[in-house]
Amino acid sequence: MTFIKQSPSEVNNPNSMLKFSVLDQGGLGRIGFLGEVVVPLSELKDQTIHDTWLDLFDKNGVKTQGELEVKLHWIHSKVLDKCLVLF
User: Fold this and answer.
1) Is the pLDDT assigned to residue 62 strictly greater than 70?
2) Residue 37 is part of which domain span?
3) How many CB atoms lie under 10 A from the CB of residue 37?
4) What is the CATH number of the domain that holds 61?
5) What's the confidence (pLDDT) of residue 80?
6) How many CB atoms within 10 Å of residue 85?
7) How many domains does the chain have?
8) Computed from CA positions of residues 50, 37, 24, 68, in that sequence, does the dihedral angle turn out positive or negative?
9) How many angstroms separate the CA atoms of 69 and 52, rounded?
10) 3-class secondary structure for the chain?
11) Phi, psi (deg, nearest 5) at residue 77
12) How far is CA 27 from the centre of its chain?
């Protein structure tokens, strides 16, 4: 089973970064790290839906063979003074 851990989904700073970690739960309950990707919120500032594939990188920043398909939408509310990223 493969699962994705992300943080944060709600931020107060438009200069924040979204980090997605892709993990795989193998036999005997072992969890393996498949890769991660960091997305600067500034890349989503046009507030449109971004549907794309992103390359995964290991913890040293070296590209792995994996990719992650994401659909991101940054909604910024000046009233709430918060940013919400939906995926």
Assistant:
1) yes
2) 2-86
3) 20
4) 2.60.40.150
5) 55
6) 19
7) 1
8) positive
9) 6
10) CEEEEEECCEECCCCCEEEEEEEEECHHHCEEEEEEEEEEHHHHCCCCEEEEEEEEECCCCCEEEEEEEEEEEEEEECCCCEEEEEC
11) -110, 115
12) 26
Q: Residue 4 is encoded by which pair of tokens?
A: 């994705």
Average pLDDT on 75-79 reads 68
In the chain, the amino acid numbered 9 is S
**Residue 2, both tokens:** 């493969």
Residue carrying the six token digits 């200069």 = 15
C-alpha 34/C-alpha 21 separation (Å) is 8
pLDDT in tens, 38-52: 888 888 888 899 999
